[in-house]
Amino acid sequence: MDVEILSRIQFAATIAFHYIFPPMSIGLGLLLVVMEGMYMKTGNELYHRMTRFWVKIFGLIFALGVATGIVMEFQFGTNWAAYSRFVGDIFGSALAAEGIFAFFLESGFLAILLFGWDKVKPKTHFLSTIMVAAGAHFSAIWIVVANSWQQTPAGFHLVARGDTFRAELTSFFEAVLNPSFLDRISHVFMGAWQAGAFLVLSVSAFYLLKNKHQEFAKASIKIALVLAVGASLLQLVTGHDSALGVARNQPAKLAAFEGHYERSAPAPLYLIGWVNEETQEVTGIKVPGLLSFMIYADADQNVMGLNAIPPDERPPVNIVFQAFHIMVFVGLLLIVVSLLGALYLWRGKLFETRWLLWIFVFSVLGPHIANQLGWMAAEVGRQPWIVYELLRTSDALSSVVPAGEIITSLILFGLIYLLLFILFVFLLNEKIQHGPEDAAVQNGRMA
Amino acid sequence: MNIDLNTIWFLLVGVLFSGYAILDGFDLGVGALHLFTKKDLDRRIMLNSIGPVWDGNEVWLVTGGGALFAAFPDVYATSFSGFYLAFMLLLVALIFRAVAIEFRSKRESTRWRNTWDVSFSVSSVVSALLIGVALGNVAQGIPLTADYEYTGGLLGLLRPLPLVVGLTTVCLFAMHGAIFVLMKTEGELHDMVRSWVPRLIGLFIAGYVLTTALILAYVPHMTTLLFDNPVLFIIPALNVLAIVNIPREISRGNDFNAFLSSCAAMVLLLGLFGIGMYPDMIYSSPVAENSLTIYNAASSGKTHQIMLIIALIGMPIVVAYTVSIYWIFRGKVKLDANSY
What we know:
Shape of chain B: globular
Largest sheet of chain A: 2 strands, antiparallel
Radius of gyration of chain A: 23 Å
Distance between the termini of chain B: 48 Å
Distance between the termini of chain A: 62 Å
Oligomer: heterodimer
Strand content of chain A: 5-15%
Order of helices and strands of chain B: HHHHHHHHHHHEEH
Order of helices and strands of chain A: HHHHHEEHHHHEEEHEHHHEEHH
């Protein structure tokens, strides 16, 4: 295998594994602020126990996020040296800003969150929780700035250096607020809030089904369900806006989402399908004109298709099509699940409805599947470009790293990440089995 | 030496890596010494002395890497791709270390704990060694092509001077870590670690002297700026004073002052490294014209300006709350239910 495909596999594997953790940190971070805020407001010991339990889970998730995140910070230099030279001005700045504004905040105040319960006043602890949650959100902002710039570069000009070019900053604000940034950051935030909310729902529903920690579980569900419903519904809005942005800025990617080949024609929307890239045919169930309608509010409007784009500038189609469609499907399922939960809660039957609680237990996977596939659609859909229409992925590699060394690192990461994942599941399970501590123990330590 | 934006960024990247060295340096050092304590309770105290702060310390490396990417993208690209396998080993070591700290005390089993103790210690030593070897290579100079690429692979990095710098870094971090542990412990463990400190100082000084001798003999470009500007000799002079002050403070029982001296010694040492390198960032040997300097490796002036504003807003806040957090966790380690 050649260096390009190996480097792409390594990047995909390490970023996909890393991205299991940050969304949960972001979503759970927000919920921790709510939980501890309720404790501050009501003084109810239940919320205190709740916060302490979820802080422990947060700590575990955060540790895995840091361990796998360091790799990401350096991988641009190790495997994508030509890319790094091309985008250092802008992409590097976003990463540096993330360090300064987000990582220090998160990791610093997390110390107080985890170890400071008896060392600081409750108000200081609450402030630290807010700082950690803010840090987690800031981190996403800078990463999405950097990635959105790859999708829709702005605020730069190309400058010749020897026989190549690089992008240099002309306007920091234009680069940060590039055309796809706002749509994408809101989409990422909602996906992360869903990941946090459904994690809490899943564990709490499990407790109810096992007749354990009833009071704790019911209160946790009420808080998490509000976020689950809100984020899942808003995800429709941010998803739609993101797709409109893709239609505007990256028509090749939009065409791949729906397997739309014709140069310019009204486009259907597929509910389900399979793209044959040889024959350029899509087999599946479609609603004629719906894609045109969703973009232009007019079912007869023409949508630009892949054949209007030179073959060497088209992304792989079927994989993008499938990733996009499964993401949307899972997103819709999550709306149904969260609305059902809200309905049953409103009618006072949720905590006795075992089939729905079982669905909650497994719903934790939903946001992760949708988040991963969403990124896959976004990143594979941008190919063959690493920076859209400016730099090809094949021109972005490290020229000095041979394939053998990448195979070595790929195997190393594979083994270590497997170990990490086993340990993560094992410890998460242990913490869940152990459950929230009872109030007596708590008060003893607080004294 | 005229102070332009490139020089300011050279200094700022230096500040970030100095922050990394003095902070993660002590927790890597604690890791290096971890196996020399035998009792489970002692090991837990060692681990918990760095418990609340180690991952914050690592952020200095991440931010330093980000700053290098933003300010000198070619240095970032050349060094990380050129030192590929070495960096992959470093990443693996850092991951293992994080996992070992997190998981070690989660189960009672002796075998479980011993396994993670060894992982924690070995990965700490390997991390320190690799960081030192990388710095040693940057100092001695590596062959760069006209495209500023290094093609020598891992074996090309394993040379005498870089290896000496690597081992010296391990000793330095171990000394620094031991002094940190003195501040955080009491009783038997404190006395035991205290008995190690003179030996660790001795090992570090031996490495330091050997490194200096090798550089004076074989790496003339590292001393040019120093000999041309004798006033700069104040840095090595202060460095020696800071090192000498460490045993003095320890014999008086001022563990905190000893730790500050150790921090000062490390910052001055990196200052000396910076003076040796300036204005090069990766020295090319034998073809010196291919060196990456603070000018030919820099990002645009616009980026340097914007990032300077970001750093000037962000870093004072970071330093303020980092100091507050260290203040909150000051004093001797007491194990409780939140501990590792």
